[in-house]
């Protein structure tokens, strides 16, 4: 799965209700489109296991800094709200923005290497909290008829994820199992003093790992209902 395919199903659900929901919106009626998108996202988070999400293991490196993250969870998606919903039927494009008051990432870590000028070796429990975080999705969708029930479906064909940080990025050490406490505090200060850089690292190396898990939950939801049922549910 490529990054441009990420979160396709989430955007599909939002698009389905806004364009084809209980009230068919004029594509110039941004209020109507936004209302439909808000209702669809609310239904998604209420009926599926999307908050919290869990990933067993994340490994990687940043230059000479190596990390292994296990038993991690991402919470806060249920409190996000659709901020922007725009569609173009001729070009078959869409744009969706989600504003999240806070996304919280809890994890167990093992690290080794050099971060900036600080040498780090250790393990422990930690958290990353991102306040006032806007996730932005743009892409192309297609419309098809299902062979199973001859019902129309909309599928996102291309999706690009970007984000805007309006608040803060806070790294927190919850429990140090092994390692130098002073060096851990230096590392935390390093990340917290560079919010834009830290947000990009979080989105690239961590948030993307949750995409397949989220998509699986959304697909489970979609498999239980037809488009007619989705339309009549509002």
Automatic annotation (TrEMBL):
Key words of the record: Signal
GO cellular component, one term: extracellular space
Keyword Signal in annotation: yes
Annotated coiled-coil segments of the chain: none
Pfam families: JHBP (PF06585)
Source organism of this protein record: Arctia plantaginis
N-terminal signal peptide: 1-21
Protein's recorded name: Uncharacterized protein
């Amino acid at each position: 799965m490529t990054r441009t395919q990420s979160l396709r199903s989430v955007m599909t659900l939002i698009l389905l209700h806004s364009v084809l929901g209980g009230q068919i919106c004029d594509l110039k009626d941004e209020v109507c489109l936004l209302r439909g998108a808000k209702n669809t996202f609310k239904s998604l988070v209420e009926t599926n296991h999307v908050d919290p999400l869990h990933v067993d293991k994340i490994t990687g490196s940043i230059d000479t800094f190596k990390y292994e993250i296990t038993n991690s969870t991402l919470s806060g998606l249920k409190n996000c709200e659709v901020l922007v919903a725009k569609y173009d039927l001729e070009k078959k494009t869409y744009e969706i923005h989600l504003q999240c008051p806070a996304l919280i990432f809890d994890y167990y870590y093992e690290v080794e290497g050099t971060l900036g000028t600080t040498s780090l070796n250790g393990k422990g429990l930690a958290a990353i909290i991102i306040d006032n975080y806007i996730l932005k999705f743009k892409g192309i969708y297609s419309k098809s008829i299902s062979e199973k029930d001859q019902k129309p479906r909309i599928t996102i064909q291309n999706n690009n994820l970007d984000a805007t940080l309006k608040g803060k990025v806070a790294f927190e050490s919850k429990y140090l199992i092994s390692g130098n406490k002073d060096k851990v505090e230096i590392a935390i200060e390093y990340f917290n003093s560079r919010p834009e850089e830290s947000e990009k690292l979080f989105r690239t190396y961590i948030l993307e790992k949750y995409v397949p898990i989220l998509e699986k939950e959304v697909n489970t939801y979609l498999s239980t209902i037809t488009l007619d049922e989705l339309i009549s549910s509002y």
